[in-house]
Amino acid sequence: MQRHLTTIIDIARQLGISKSTVSRALTDHPNVNAKTRQRVLELAEQLDYQRNQLAISLLTNQTRTIGILVPEFISYFFPRVIISAQQVLTKAGYNVVICQSGESYEMEVSNAHTLLANRVDGLLVSHTKETRNFDHLRTFQRKSIPVVFFNRVCEDMNVPNVTVDDYRGAFVAVEHLIQSGRRRIAHLAGPDSLPNTRNRLNGYRDALLHYGLPIEPELIISYDLTLEKANIYINHLLNLPQPPDALFTINDPTAIEVLKVCRSRGLHVPNELAIVGFSNDPISELVEPGLTTVVQPVDDLGREAARLLLNAMEGSATEMPERVVLPTQLIVRGSS
Amino acid sequence: MQRHLTTIIDIARQLGISKSTVSRALTDHPNVNAKTRQRVLELAEQLDYQRNQLAISLLTNQTRTIGILVPEFISYFFPRVIISAQQVLTKAGYNVVICQSGESYEMEVSNAHTLLANRVDGLLVSHTKETRNFDHLRTFQRKSIPVVFFNRVCEDMNVPNVTVDDYRGAFVAVEHLIQSGRRRIAHLAGPDSLPNTRNRLNGYRDALLHYGLPIEPELIISYDLTLEKANIYINHLLNLPQPPDALFTINDPTAIEVLKVCRSRGLHVPNELAIVGFSNDPISELVEPGLTTVVQPVDDLGREAARLLLNAMEGSATEMPERVVLPTQLIVRGSS
DNA sequence: ATTTTTTTTGGGAATGTTCCCAAAAAAATA
DNA sequence: TATTTTTTTGGGAACATTCCCAAAAAAAAT
């Protein structure tokens, strides 16, 4: 594997000039003779020279690369956020490296180390559902590499973050169910470790309280977001002596799973069971009946996260870290 | 931004030994006193030292990073392929950098340059629908950086590639429609620039020929994969004086779009129009009726692509480049 | 023609690491 | 104790680039 890529020195040698001059010609530095620049540019083109970003990064101590660390990107949510963040960052002249941890804490730590070793200039992160120890991310902070959380945030770390208004989204969703006459509203919640799970749960609780409905512990189940478990719990809820007349789920895939179970049990949606999801996956408008759900502004989320990171990297990081909460919105479809 | 990260030299100085010794201690080199190693390791931990991968890569001329270049990753397909490729590559000790070009040729070229400047050791690529000139990828070849195509391949370039059996998949899909009594089978095809579009089109044609059915040019429409266009063409087909009784589409999202149009026009599926998609998106089993489709072995695709790349990077690249074609399979659901 | 100014060029340090070679220290042998 | 062998250490080159400073060349001014 003795491939040799053209360097600035090769060009200098062939032209009988110094590497400094070549460097200047290649970097649009003013102090270079027009004709010399021309010759350099031509030879560079001819040898298809490609500047070695590694050497430059080593020297300047910045890579102009930012890392994005997400738990997964199969679902619709993260890819969309990443794309919109990437647009902003690319425009600002940064490269983007994406790592996904497959919801595994171990993988997340390993990815964090890789990004650190590769000297990213900043980090955008949404942690796994398993993550409880944030040392691997604090390391970035300690080395003063800006970190911004989005969607899944660690409130203990004193860094900027962007979330959607999970509490309000959940409140409005449950309020809608109550106002359409439901009285036994179950909630299939996510893992307790995630702040947005907790916020949605609080929204659910407060909506019930606000309308004078009892909070029944047997109607609240938190689970690990795997569809197998979802299935078990959905059936468990429907088999209760007093089954719920509505089900509010932590996300749309779960709600779709509920829809499938109802279909297989011959339960009519929404007459016998109303369903409300969360996130407005594209699937939610394709199923029959359409799924009532809470919209998360995915594009804004990515854009804002990128903006906060750029601020932190380029601006003064002394102020109180900015925390953005984006509004959510209920979309009512056939399932409720 | 004068952050200084701990280096091997800081450790050496604090311990009053040379950087060579520190380096040895840190890299598990045998020629180092056990006690010295211990001291180095402890201090490294304490200062949370992180080796600078840039410096190492510069020195060794390999980054142990491989680039994955895809047109998009919103759809289900690419994320899945990437994840399975990533698993293989991670296990082999490589980092993975993912770039998405948003189906834009310009962005693809720019991404290719970035990856080259960052000195990736290998490239996994599925090009955009706009890509007709492959110079930006040939550059890798010229610099003897292994390239492997997957799914969307450039047959002119003499590199390994992995595809699914698009021809056979399409043939079997259309055969199934014919055998269930359809006679006017339309095909909504992808852009001509993509080989898999062409292969699927050939499969469609040959199936018709094989069963003695005429090929009607008015029933074959290629389009650019945007859903807005899909909508227009679907309506166009259904408005024909002699509308089709079946529609075979280039992919599942398109087929779902057909389903939606049928729903809004009150057309019964499959009685009045049978629909067959391609790729077995998870959505396809959630819609009503379930979508008949052709399964692409996404995980195998990623795994094989990674394997071929590892071969090319580590093995002898002299032989004829390997080309893998993975089998497809028809899944019949309610839409046909 | 000489001096001053401007433009253009070259040399060398610096970035953080590994690896080779020589030197020093320690251990083993005579 | 002296010599040989083994273990451990240090010094410096190399990787590709940028940037500073000085030197050379060219142009302008006297």
UniProtKB/TrEMBL annotation, chains A, B:
Key word Transcription regulation present: yes
Domain HTH lacI-type: 6-60
GO molecular function: DNA-binding transcription factor activity; transcription cis-regulatory region binding
UniProt signal peptide: none
CDD domains per the UniProt record, alphabetical: HTH_LacI (cd01392), PBP1_LacI_sugar_binding-like (cd06267)
One Pfam family in the UniProt entry: Peripla_BP_3
InterPro entries associated with the record: HTH_LacI (IPR000843), LacI/GalR-like_sensor (IPR046335), Lambda_DNA-bd_dom_sf (IPR010982), Peripla_BP_I (IPR028082)
Keywords from the UniProt entry: DNA-binding, Transcription, Transcription regulation
Protein name (database record): LacI family DNA-binding transcriptional regulator
Natural source organism: Spirosoma profusum
